[in-house]
Amino acid sequence: MSKSKSKPTNPIDRDFQILDHTADLRLKIKGSSDKELFINAAKGMFSVITSIDNIALKERISVELRAPKKEDLLIDWLNELLFLMNTEDMLFREFKIYELNRGYIKAEAIGERIDSKRHKIITEIKAATYHNIKIISDDSGWSCEVVFDI
What we know:
Order of helices and strands: EEHEHEEEEE
Largest sheet: 5 strands, antiparallel
Number of domains: 1
Radius of gyration: 14 Å
Strand content: 35-45%
CATH architecture: 3-Layer(bab) Sandwich
Number of strands: 8
């Protein structure tokens, strides 16, 4: 995969937004629930990596993680998806979360194996970072900002 720092051509969705950051990539993510926040974070990350519209829903991979708090769990979730992308040559477009609480997630990532003829990697993400991670829940829903090392 080649590394490119060009901005992705994907349209900006209201559920995640690319924000300027000094050296890395920062996404602002929103959701009506904590589950939706985690799903939108994953969709936002893969939308930066490639055009998710080109990812077929062929394979399902189960993900089950534990972490001491929800912020840690979100970063672990995103990094596990990156790990699966890099070790299993997978790209994901849809995500289902079956259980999510303060320290546990049971979910499924749905997508397909990378096909270099159909999938162009726009931005290579190395990792989701813990830099200033804070999940906020208020009357307007759930939100957070995630900084990615690219």
